[in-house]
Amino acid sequence: MNKKTLILIGFILLKFVLQYVLISPEYDLQRDEYLHLDQAHHLAWGYLSVPPVTSWFSCLILLLGNSVFWIRFFPALFGAMTLLIVWKTIELLKGNLYALILGSLGILFSCLLRLNMLYQPNSLDVLCWTAFYYILIQYIVTEKNNLLYLGAFVFAFGFLNKYNILFLLLGLIPAILLSNQRKILAKKELYFALVMGFLFILPNLVWQYRNHFPIVHHMKELAETQLVNVDRIGFLKEQILFFIGSFFVILSALYAFLFYKPFKKYQFFFTTFIFTLLIFIYFKAKAYYAIGLYPIYIGFGAVYLSEILNSGWKRFLKPVFILIPLLFFIPMYNIAFPNKSPEYIVANPEKYKKLGMLRWEDGKEHQLPQDYADMLGWKVLAHKTDSIYALFPKSENTLILCDNYGQAGAINYYTKKGIRAVSFNADYVNWFNLNVYYKNLIRVKTFEENSGEFKTTSPFFEKAFIGGQITNKYAREYGTTIFVFTNAKININKRLEQEIAKEKNYKD
């Protein structure tokens, strides 16, 4: 085993270790993770908010025991593979050992450490962007037609993971058309590859059609509730912060595309970068949607810097560029990860506020970063619901109805009694079991919605009481209450059918 391989293995092992130690055990999983894990029980070619690939990995996690270890493992794996592809890109561009180390440090000590903490489609999305760009570079170097098919497969797989990869294509097409690389359009293999990729994603498109294109409703809702709060200047500021330790490496890559002769055939990567960012800005996308754009540019920049820093006084700058990612990681370690208690963050809000971390999707300032607040209270909610559910002799006649997918997913994940909580929110609207005749209702309501629950619902049942509440004031679900209603005087199933139909008609 040579020196390069040992260093690469060291980077990958460090990546995995950091992903496990950067989260304090007092935090639960994040709200979205519970929904994604629950998809393993409801396999389909699509879901209301995400394509199907996440559910495939959720099935694998379920087979492996559904433990937190494996939930953390897969995003860490995708991050490690992103680092590996950047390493391979640098080798393909004939970068030396210094370039390999510089590029790896830039990927390791970046926003990817935070992105790869959570079991969401984002980690695999960044990997697919990076892999696609790598295959494109390989094709430019070798012009092997089989790489066109591989690129189409990676893009299609990325599409089935997160539709965000469409932005890659939207930024790449005009850049290719304006460059000498447009000769690729004369290749018949390109069109065969496009057909293959289309056939791969066709089942998801059919699912979207049969379900009246829920992605359109989801994007409309996203635009009205979240993207409307996106500040375009803030978007650009966050782009700098994502890879702050490699900011000058990325700038070097952009410079090299224009003025460094060995990179002349890759010049379209400069215009791709500009076009893709402009499209994100135009659509007021969330800042993290663009993260997949950067890793490959760190590879280019590392190769260029390793060449120009080889002679004269510039060689003394070599350790500086190595140290910058490490030095920026120190404040990142203290701020950017949930490794501090909620009490500590609330007592020391200044540095979090300065970085905009306390600003949530609603555009308002809160006590904790949104992701952190979304990782509190779930286990307690599930255990309290579990204990209430056990009170009923025929528990299968008891419906657990939640206000949102986080509540339903958390209850389903932590329960030991085979509970299948549901909600009219997100994909759960399609997962009701109406073959069971329900007599009792456990209603989980958020604080904002629970004030009139007794008055509204108790007349339809013989008995009603409060079974518990989330009392962690730092949790986003603080005040969420568990209402219990027993011995229904009405046909619950009929009411459910009406509400489900109403919700689906609204989405249509």
Short description:
The chain has 23 helices and 5 strands.
Give your account of this protein's structure.
With 508 residues, the protein is mostly helical. A five-stranded mixed beta sheet has the order 2-1-3-5-4. The protein is built from 23 helices and five strands. Helix 21 links the parallel strand 1 and strand 2 (422-423). Helix 4 packs parallel to helix 7, helix 7 (121-142) runs antiparallel to helix 8 (146-161) and helix 8 (146-161) runs parallel beside helix 10 (188-210). It is globular, with a radius of gyration of 25 Å. The mean pLDDT is 92. 41% of the residues are buried.
Task: Note the topology.
Elements: H1 3-21, H2 31-38, H3 53-63, H4 68-92, H5 97-108, H6 112-115, H7 121-142, H8 146-161, H9 166-177, H10 188-210, H11 214-225, H12 232-242, H13 247-259, H14 268-282, H15 295-308, H16 318-335, H17 342-347, H18 350-354, H19 370-373, H20 378-389, E1 398-402, H21 405-414, E2 422-423, E3 440-445, H22 453-457, E4 461-469, E5 481-488, H23 492-507
Parallel strand pairs: 1-2, 1-3
Antiparallel strand pairs: 3-5, 4-5
Helix pairs in contact: 1-4, 1-5, 2-21, 4-5, 4-7, 4-15, 5-15, 5-16, 7-8, 8-10, 9-14, 13-15, 20-21
- Structural classification: mainly alpha
- Report mean pLDDT, rounded to a whole number: 92
Strand order of the largest sheet: 2-1-3-5-4
Query: How would you classify the quaternary structure?
Result: single chain
Order of helices and strands: HHHHHHHHHHHHHHHHHHHHEHEEHEEH
Distance between the termini: 58 Å
> Beta-sheet strand percentage?
5-15%
Q: Profile the largest sheet.
A: 5 strands, mixed
How many β-strands, per DSSP? 5
Uncertain runs with pLDDT below 50, 5 residues or more?
none
| Helical residue percent band | 55-70%
Counting H and I runs of at least 4 residues, what is the number of helices? Answer: 23
Shape: globular
Q: Could you tell me the radius of gyration in angstroms? A: 25 Å
